[in-house]
Amino acid sequence: MSAFGLMAQTSTNVYSLNAVGYINLTVVPGFNMIADQLWATGGNSISNILSDSDDHLDGASIYKWTGGGFLIDNANNNTATSPSGWNDATGGLETLNPGEAVWFDNPFPTNITLTFVGTVPQGTNSVTLNAGFTMASSPVPQSGDLVTNMGFTNQNNGDTVFVFNPGSGYTIYNYNANTGTAGFNQDWSATGDPIVAIGQGFWYEAGTTIVYTRVFSVNQ
Protein backbone atom coordinates (compact mmCIF):
# COMPACT_ATOMS: atom_id res chain seq x y z
CA MET A 1 0.00 0.00 0.00
CA SER A 2 2.77 2.44 0.83
CA ALA A 3 6.48 2.91 1.25
CA PHE A 4 8.20 5.35 3.57
CA GLY A 5 11.75 6.55 3.28
CA LEU A 6 14.12 9.11 4.70
CA MET A 7 16.19 11.34 2.47
CA ALA A 8 19.54 12.16 4.06
CA GLN A 9 20.56 15.80 3.89
CA THR A 10 24.18 16.68 4.56
CA SER A 11 26.10 19.92 4.38
CA THR A 12 29.54 20.82 5.66
CA ASN A 13 29.39 22.30 9.19
CA VAL A 14 25.57 22.07 9.21
CA TYR A 15 23.64 19.85 11.62
CA SER A 16 19.86 19.51 11.76
CA LEU A 17 17.48 17.41 13.85
CA ASN A 18 14.88 17.63 11.07
CA ALA A 19 14.40 14.49 8.99
CA VAL A 20 12.90 14.83 5.52
CA GLY A 21 10.91 11.85 4.31
CA TYR A 22 8.66 10.69 1.53
CA ILE A 23 5.62 8.42 1.37
CA ASN A 24 4.74 6.58 -1.84
CA LEU A 25 1.09 5.63 -1.43
CA THR A 26 -0.60 3.23 -3.85
CA VAL A 27 -4.32 3.95 -4.27
CA VAL A 28 -6.62 1.52 -6.04
CA PRO A 29 -9.52 2.47 -8.34
CA GLY A 30 -12.37 3.86 -6.29
CA PHE A 31 -12.30 4.97 -2.68
CA ASN A 32 -9.22 4.90 -0.44
CA MET A 33 -8.90 6.44 3.04
CA ILE A 34 -5.55 8.20 2.95
CA ALA A 35 -3.26 10.17 5.26
CA ASP A 36 -0.18 12.35 4.82
CA GLN A 37 1.99 11.92 7.91
CA LEU A 38 4.62 14.48 6.89
CA TRP A 39 4.74 18.28 7.20
CA ALA A 40 5.09 19.61 3.67
CA THR A 41 6.99 22.76 2.76
CA GLY A 42 4.31 25.36 2.06
CA GLY A 43 1.70 23.62 4.20
CA ASN A 44 -0.50 20.55 3.96
CA SER A 45 -3.34 21.90 1.86
CA ILE A 46 -4.63 19.54 -0.82
CA SER A 47 -3.64 22.13 -3.43
CA ASN A 48 -0.03 21.91 -2.26
CA ILE A 49 0.46 18.21 -1.55
CA LEU A 50 -1.77 16.89 -4.36
CA SER A 51 -1.53 19.59 -7.01
CA ASP A 52 -3.27 18.84 -10.32
CA SER A 53 -1.55 21.68 -12.18
CA ASP A 54 -0.29 19.15 -14.75
CA ASP A 55 -3.69 17.37 -15.16
CA HIS A 56 -2.49 14.01 -13.83
CA LEU A 57 -5.26 13.85 -11.21
CA ASP A 58 -8.13 15.09 -13.40
CA GLY A 59 -11.34 13.42 -12.24
CA ALA A 60 -10.09 12.58 -8.74
CA SER A 61 -12.10 13.68 -5.71
CA ILE A 62 -11.33 14.40 -2.06
CA TYR A 63 -13.94 13.99 0.69
CA LYS A 64 -13.05 15.58 4.02
CA TRP A 65 -15.26 14.92 7.04
CA THR A 66 -16.31 18.08 8.89
CA GLY A 67 -18.12 16.42 11.78
CA GLY A 68 -21.55 16.73 10.20
CA GLY A 69 -20.92 15.97 6.56
CA PHE A 70 -18.30 15.91 3.82
CA LEU A 71 -16.51 18.80 2.17
CA ILE A 72 -15.98 17.59 -1.42
CA ASP A 73 -13.32 18.83 -3.82
CA ASN A 74 -12.74 17.70 -7.41
CA ALA A 75 -9.61 17.89 -9.56
CA ASN A 76 -10.01 19.21 -13.09
CA ASN A 77 -7.27 21.54 -14.21
CA ASN A 78 -9.17 22.41 -17.41
CA THR A 79 -12.06 24.05 -15.55
CA ALA A 80 -10.58 24.97 -12.16
CA THR A 81 -10.16 28.57 -11.14
CA SER A 82 -7.47 27.48 -8.69
CA PRO A 83 -3.95 27.10 -10.18
CA SER A 84 -3.68 23.79 -8.32
CA GLY A 85 -6.46 22.26 -10.44
CA TRP A 86 -8.93 21.75 -7.57
CA ASN A 87 -12.15 23.58 -8.33
CA ASP A 88 -14.88 22.86 -5.78
CA ALA A 89 -15.40 23.50 -2.07
CA THR A 90 -12.32 25.52 -1.06
CA GLY A 91 -10.32 25.08 -4.26
CA GLY A 92 -7.94 22.66 -2.59
CA LEU A 93 -7.34 24.73 0.55
CA GLU A 94 -8.66 22.01 2.88
CA THR A 95 -5.84 20.36 4.82
CA LEU A 96 -4.49 16.86 5.16
CA ASN A 97 -2.25 17.33 8.20
CA PRO A 98 -0.54 14.51 10.09
CA GLY A 99 -3.26 12.93 12.24
CA GLU A 100 -6.02 13.69 9.72
CA ALA A 101 -7.49 11.50 6.97
CA VAL A 102 -9.66 11.96 3.88
CA TRP A 103 -11.33 9.82 1.29
CA PHE A 104 -9.52 9.87 -2.08
CA ASP A 105 -11.60 8.67 -5.03
CA ASN A 106 -9.30 7.34 -7.77
CA PRO A 107 -11.23 7.67 -11.07
CA PHE A 108 -8.77 5.65 -13.12
CA PRO A 109 -9.10 1.92 -13.99
CA THR A 110 -5.66 1.13 -12.55
CA ASN A 111 -3.71 1.84 -9.36
CA ILE A 112 -1.92 5.16 -9.14
CA THR A 113 0.82 6.35 -6.78
CA LEU A 114 0.55 9.48 -4.66
CA THR A 115 3.84 10.83 -3.32
CA PHE A 116 4.02 12.99 -0.21
CA VAL A 117 7.26 14.73 0.78
CA GLY A 118 7.96 16.63 3.97
CA THR A 119 9.44 16.78 7.44
CA VAL A 120 8.83 13.82 9.73
CA PRO A 121 6.85 14.85 12.85
CA GLN A 122 8.97 14.26 15.94
CA GLY A 123 8.56 14.92 19.64
CA THR A 124 5.02 15.08 21.04
CA ASN A 125 2.23 14.88 18.46
CA SER A 126 -1.46 15.06 19.39
CA VAL A 127 -4.68 14.16 17.56
CA THR A 128 -8.08 15.22 18.95
CA LEU A 129 -10.75 12.55 18.50
CA ASN A 130 -14.10 14.23 18.99
CA ALA A 131 -17.17 12.61 20.50
CA GLY A 132 -18.89 10.81 17.65
CA PHE A 133 -17.02 10.10 14.42
CA THR A 134 -13.60 11.46 13.40
CA MET A 135 -11.55 10.62 10.31
CA ALA A 136 -8.05 10.24 11.74
CA SER A 137 -4.64 8.68 11.28
CA SER A 138 -1.47 8.10 13.21
CA PRO A 139 0.27 11.51 13.37
CA VAL A 140 3.59 9.87 12.44
CA PRO A 141 4.62 7.67 9.49
CA GLN A 142 4.55 4.34 11.25
CA SER A 143 2.68 1.11 10.53
CA GLY A 144 1.49 -1.68 12.75
CA ASP A 145 -0.46 -2.03 15.97
CA LEU A 146 -2.07 1.29 16.91
CA VAL A 147 -1.99 0.35 20.59
CA THR A 148 1.28 -1.46 21.32
CA ASN A 149 3.38 0.09 18.52
CA MET A 150 1.92 3.59 18.49
CA GLY A 151 0.98 4.24 22.10
CA PHE A 152 -2.77 4.67 21.73
CA THR A 153 -3.98 3.64 25.19
CA ASN A 154 -6.56 6.17 26.46
CA GLN A 155 -9.72 4.86 24.82
CA ASN A 156 -13.20 5.03 26.30
CA ASN A 157 -15.05 1.78 26.92
CA GLY A 158 -17.20 1.25 23.85
CA ASP A 159 -15.00 3.23 21.45
CA THR A 160 -14.67 1.72 17.97
CA VAL A 161 -12.05 1.90 15.23
CA PHE A 162 -13.05 1.23 11.62
CA VAL A 163 -10.12 0.52 9.28
CA PHE A 164 -11.07 0.49 5.59
CA ASN A 165 -9.18 -1.81 3.24
CA PRO A 166 -10.13 -1.52 -0.45
CA GLY A 167 -11.44 -4.78 -1.78
CA SER A 168 -12.40 -6.22 1.59
CA GLY A 169 -14.17 -3.33 3.32
CA TYR A 170 -13.99 -2.40 7.00
CA THR A 171 -12.23 -4.25 9.78
CA ILE A 172 -13.96 -3.22 13.01
CA TYR A 173 -12.17 -3.03 16.36
CA ASN A 174 -14.18 -2.42 19.53
CA TYR A 175 -12.61 -1.49 22.87
CA ASN A 176 -14.06 -2.54 26.20
CA ALA A 177 -11.86 -3.19 29.22
CA ASN A 178 -14.69 -5.14 30.89
CA THR A 179 -15.78 -7.51 28.13
CA GLY A 180 -12.86 -7.62 25.68
CA THR A 181 -11.33 -10.97 24.73
CA ALA A 182 -8.33 -10.09 22.53
CA GLY A 183 -5.54 -7.62 21.92
CA PHE A 184 -3.67 -5.56 24.50
CA ASN A 185 -4.68 -6.61 28.05
CA GLN A 186 -7.56 -8.59 26.47
CA ASP A 187 -9.38 -5.26 26.10
CA TRP A 188 -10.43 -5.49 22.45
CA SER A 189 -13.02 -7.47 20.51
CA ALA A 190 -12.05 -10.66 18.72
CA THR A 191 -10.27 -8.77 15.92
CA GLY A 192 -7.66 -7.59 18.44
CA ASP A 193 -5.80 -4.27 18.42
CA PRO A 194 -6.33 -1.94 15.42
CA ILE A 195 -3.73 -2.41 12.68
CA VAL A 196 -2.97 0.46 10.27
CA ALA A 197 -0.44 1.11 7.51
CA ILE A 198 1.63 4.18 6.71
CA GLY A 199 -0.55 6.60 4.77
CA GLN A 200 -3.76 4.91 5.90
CA GLY A 201 -6.59 6.65 7.73
CA PHE A 202 -9.38 5.24 9.87
CA TRP A 203 -12.71 6.19 11.39
CA TYR A 204 -12.72 6.62 15.16
CA GLU A 205 -16.03 6.58 17.03
CA ALA A 206 -15.58 8.02 20.53
CA GLY A 207 -18.04 8.16 23.41
CA THR A 208 -16.40 11.35 24.69
CA THR A 209 -13.65 13.51 23.20
CA ILE A 210 -10.14 12.17 23.83
CA VAL A 211 -6.66 13.22 22.74
CA TYR A 212 -4.32 10.66 21.20
CA THR A 213 -0.72 11.67 21.93
CA ARG A 214 2.25 10.05 20.18
CA VAL A 215 5.83 10.80 21.19
CA PHE A 216 8.06 9.88 18.26
CA SER A 217 11.63 10.00 17.05
CA VAL A 218 13.02 8.80 13.71
CA ASN A 219 15.37 6.61 15.76
CA GLN A 220 12.42 4.47 16.89
Task: Break the fold down into its secondary structure elements and pairings.
Layout: E1 2-7, E2 20-27, E3 30-34, H1 46-49, E4 61-65, E5 70-74, E6 102-106, E7 112-119, E8 123-129, E9 132-136, E10 144-145, E11 160-165, E12 169-174, E13 195-196, E14 202-206, E15 210-216
Antiparallel strand pairs: 1-2, 2-7, 3-6, 4-5, 4-6, 8-15, 9-14, 10-13, 11-12, 11-14
Keywords, please?
220 residues, four-stranded antiparallel β-sheet, 1 helix
Task: Report a brief summary of the structure.
Helix content is 2%, strand content 37%. It has one helix and 15 strands. It has a four-stranded antiparallel beta sheet, with no helix packed on it. A four-stranded antiparallel beta sheet has the order 9-14-11-12, with no helix packed on it.
Structure description:
With 220 residues, this protein is an all-beta fold. It has a domain at 122-216. It contains 1 helix and 15 strands, in the order E-E-E-H-E-E-E-E-E-E-E-E-E-E-E-E. It has a 4-stranded antiparallel β-sheet with strand order 3-6-4-5, with no helix packed on it. Strands 9-14-11-12 form a 4-stranded antiparallel β-sheet, with no helix packed on it. It has a 3-stranded antiparallel β-sheet with strand order 1-2-7, with no helix packed on it. The protein is globular.
